[in-house]
Design brief:
Blueprint lengths: L1 H9 L3 H7 L18 H16 L3 E7 L13 E7 L5 E7 L2 E9 H7 L6 H5 L3 E5 L3 H14 L7 H20 L4 H23 L9 H8 L1 H12 L3 H15 L11
Parallel strand pairs: 2-4
Antiparallel strand pairs: 1-2, 1-5, 3-4
Helix pairs in contact: 7-8, 7-11, 8-11, 9-10, 10-11
């Protein structure tokens, strides 16, 4: 018992152990790193520019797209719809800090009139974020878009479907005609696919989604379309892409007649 007590007395204390430790030097002070403006700063700056430019003509400023959905990525643009009281419409693209800001000026009256009939305005506006408004015009428009969305898109008539088919046929045929110029042909094929995606939604009676989601959403609704689209996008040669494009065209417009011949 006495031996154990003696050993305990010879153990170093905490203070004695700490005394053996070398002092840790303080890290050197680094110069402050300037932080780029955040999204809120960019929105505030853009809003200030719009207010200064349009003044009393301004009815509402809406943020749409990925910024409104809070789904911004590193390279996302910020998209504004500026509703004006007159008819002085237009578009400008600015760079603020590290973001491109795309501003479209639209007549408030024209947007309100087109909303019940446009397949694109409703999905664009229903998730818009109101940054500024006069007499709650922006809020009322977003509410109308949300109500309109629940009723489904305006149905495409047969004449519109035939026109969509003719437009896609024209682009695919043009790409095939220019096969000897691979870069030009590939570019026209990309236009063809964009047009075909839009047509898919109109012919099927679906609301058009955000551009980045179009292929995935279409594939989720139609597995055959998804497989053909994947072949079209990944085929390594132009002839293979032409073949996949013709099958896509046939699949999307299988119940749609060709334009009437007049000869």
């Amino acid at each position: 018992m006495s031996e154990s007590s003696s050993d305990t007395q010879t153990l170093p204390s905490r203070d004695e152990l700490n005394a053996e430790l070398l002092p840790v030097p303080e890290p050197p002070e680094l110069p402050p790193t300037p932080e780029p403006p955040g999204t809120d700063n960019i929105l505030a700056h853009a809003l200030s520019l719009v207010k200064g430019k349009r003044g009393g003509d301004l009815a509402a400023v809406l943020l749409v797209g990925s910024g409104a959905r809070r789904a911004l990525t590193t390279h996302s643009d910020l998209n504004f719809i500026v509703l004006v009281k007159g008819h002085d419409e237009g578009r400008e693209v600015l760079r603020i800090a590290d973001r491109l800001v795309d501003i479209r000026y639209w007549s408030a009256k024209a947007v309100e009139d087109d909303l019940p009939h446009s397949p694109r305005l409703t999905p664009l506006l229903r998730k818009a974020r109101v940054l500024f408004e006069h007499e709650a015009l922006g809020t009322k428009l977003v509410d109308k878009a949300q109500q309109r969305f629940r009723h489904g898109p305006p149905q495409a008539g047969m004449a519109e479907k035939i026109r969509l088919k003719a437009d896609c046929q024209h682009l695919l045929g043009k790409a095939e005609d220019l096969a000897a110029q691979p870069a030009t042909s590939a570019y026209i094929l990309s236009l063809f696919f964009e047009e075909l995606l839009q047509a898919f939604f109109r012919v099927r009676g679906l609301w058009i989604t955000a551009p980045v989601d179009l292929p995935r959403f279409a594939a989720s609704r139609d597995a055959t379309f998804g497989e053909l689209a994947d072949r079209f996008l990944t085929s390594p040669t132009l002839p293979a892409r032409f073949d996949a494009g013709r099958q896509l065209l046939q699949h999307v417009f299988k119940d749609i007649p060709n334009p009437q011949r007049a000869d």
